[in-house]
Amino acid sequence: MARKVLAYVPDDFSGNxxxxxxxxxxxxxxxxxxxxxAHITCLDYSIDMLDQARKRLGSHAHxxxxxxxxxxxxxxxxxxxxxxxxxxxxxxxxxxxxxxxxWRVLKPGGNFIACFYIKGKSKRTDWxxxxxxxxxxxxxxxxxxxxxxxxxxxxLYKETDVHVEGSMVYFHCVK
Length: 175
Description:
Layout: H1 2-6, E1 16-19, H2 29-34, E2 39-44, H3 47-57, E3 63-67, E4 80-86, H4 95-105, E5 106-117, H5 123-133, H6 146-156, E6 159-165, E7 168-174
Parallel strand pairs: 1-2, 1-4, 2-3, 4-5
Antiparallel strand pairs: 5-7, 6-7
């Protein structure tokens, strides 16, 4: 799925890109490193995750890693060309604020590209998320169903391309 998500970012991308949450950058390291003409901000709330991402990405002048909250992005309105959120949205405590903040910082015509868990596709996965992952604090309810997510995205974006594989969704939206 990481390959599918990253394929939405052109190999010659040269704008401002926000990766939130960057996590350890294990899935994005090669792609971000190759985008020499881009300005990439990798943001995560977790200092531990950021430290791991810095070890992977720190030698690249076009990439900066910063600590921050997706629910309160310290960025100007309409200042980002592309936001990528890989495997992290399900961990955000206030998803509505995250959706709003991502939309706020995207330029008109900007791209929101993401993948994350959605509920209602697999009873086994839903049980795992509710009884283990959420209790450990790795995932934060509430979680959207596919229909709820589609409604959110269609209200915010002029174009939406949504795909579901099992309990995961990946999409590309244009503001």
